[in-house]
Amino acid sequence: MVKDFLAITDLTRKEIFEIFDLAKDLKVRQKRGQQHHLLSGKTLAMIFQKPSARTRISFEVGMYQLGGHALYLAPADIGLGQRESVADVARVVARYCDGIMARVFGHQIVVDLAKYATVPVINGLSDLVHPCQVMADLFTVLEHRGHLEHLTVTWIGDGNNVANSWINIASRIPMKLNLAVPEGYNPDPQILQAARQTKLSEINVLYNPLEAARGADVLYTDVWASMGQEKETAIREKAFKDFQLNQKLVDVAAPNCLVMHCLPAHRGSEITDEVIDGPHSIVFDEAENRMHVQKAIMVKLMRK
Ligand code: CP
Ligand code: NVA
Fold first, then answer.
1. What pLDDT does residue 304 have?
2. Is 292 a catalytic residue?
3. If 195 and its partner were Cys, which of 47, 68, 76, 171 is the partner (CB 3.0–4.6 Å)?
4. Cα(299)–Cα(19) distance, rounded to whole angstroms?
5. How does DSSP assign 130-192, residue by residue?
6. Atom of ligand 1 at shortest distance to CA of 51?
7. Which of 289, 263, 288 is nearest to 277 (CA)?
8. Among residues 257, 256, 230, which one has the least CA distance to residue 245?
């Protein structure tokens, strides 16, 4: 396994399933109240340039359950790249801590942290990708379905960081991935090209949500304006108005389809209450599994 986890493409297919196996085991142990102090005495620095609920809580509680400690560093604390260069922050933090999780704007920041830190760096979301999220997502699908064979996964909305991570995972696990995005809001072209070159999955970028959702096993959506895009909210509300995950899409998907959202959700915008609270929704299992999967990722990277 490589030193850092910056994108799903840092993992092989085999490593992805090893992480899922360990996550399953850790989840069972935690539910049974069995001690699993696999990172006893280790400390994780959590550097945030953006807000978070799930990422912060799941890493911090996860580290505690593993017998370690996590340190929350808010945007104003470190001043990454402003008070001090990214390289110097990486060098210093690595002298105190055994791992770094960072949530950043530009993806290059996690790349630079990884370059200059002598300890593992985990991407807790960048503008480009959100790898921990999609690892937890796929683990959740596996739990509900018991397998990941011949899945049709439909993404509805922005071609954003979470969508890009779904494309990345489609270059490791075969699936049919339909992305329904408004024109001009496509996923990252390089990530798309690289995934298509592996010829492992069928990846379609469509501009019609109903067509994309037909027969889908998974219907997935995310906010229309991601963190850092708040100023574009009004423009995006117009562009995305026909890209809502609502009952019409559930009705054309597979009868047992799973509805997913990485959260936080803007109910009434990208998803309706009826659907997010409906019988197909697994959004809170998905949120919980962030912790179990990230614990497995930390054990794999930090228990050396
Ligand atoms: N899904 C997710 O990453 O949530 P937070 O932004 O609350 O961490
Ligand atoms: N695309 C969203 C995901 C939040 C978890 C964002 O970047 O804000």
1. 77
2. no
3. 171
4. 9
5. -HHHHHHHHHHHHHHHS--TT-EEEEES---HHHHHHHHHTTTS--EEEEE--TT----HHHH
6. 6
7. 263
8. 257
Nearest ligand, measured from the Cα of 284: 1
Query: DSSP assignment of 287-304, as one string?
Result: HHHHHHHHHHHHHHHH--
Rounded CA-CA distance 132/292 in Å is 11
Candidates 2.50.20.10, 3.40.50.1370, 3.30.870.10, 3.40.50.300; CATH matching 8-130+290-302: 3.40.50.1370
Q: pTM of the entire structure?
A: 0.98
Instruction: Assign domain 133-286 to a CATH class.
Output: alpha beta
| Nearest Cα residue to 161 out of 183, 141, 143, 137 | 137
Report the alpha-carbon distance of residue 277 to residue 220 in Å, rounded.
14
Q: Are 17 and 148 in contact (CB under 8 A)?
A: no
Alpha helices in the chain (DSSP H): 13-31, 54-65, 75-78, 86-96, 107-116, 131-145, 161-169, 189-197, 209-213, 233-239, 247-252, 273-276, 283-302
Mean pLDDT value across residues 142-166: 98
- Asked if domains 8-130+290-302 and 133-286 share a fold, the reply is yes
> 301 CA distance to ligand 1 centroid (A)?
21
* Radius of gyration over every alpha carbon of the chain, rounded to an integer in angstroms: 19
Rounded CA separation 26/201 (Å)? 30
pLDDT tens by residue, 73-110: 999 999 999 999 999 999 999 999 999 999 999 999 99
Atom of ligand 2 nearest to the CA of 158: 1
Name the catalytic one among 56, 172, 261, 290: 290
Q: Is 222 one of the annotated active-site residues of the chain?
A: yes
With contact defined as beta carbons under 8 Å apart, do 299 and 66 qualify?
Answer: yes
Amino acid at 104: V
Answer yes or no: is the C-beta of 161 below 6 A from any ligand 2 atom.
yes
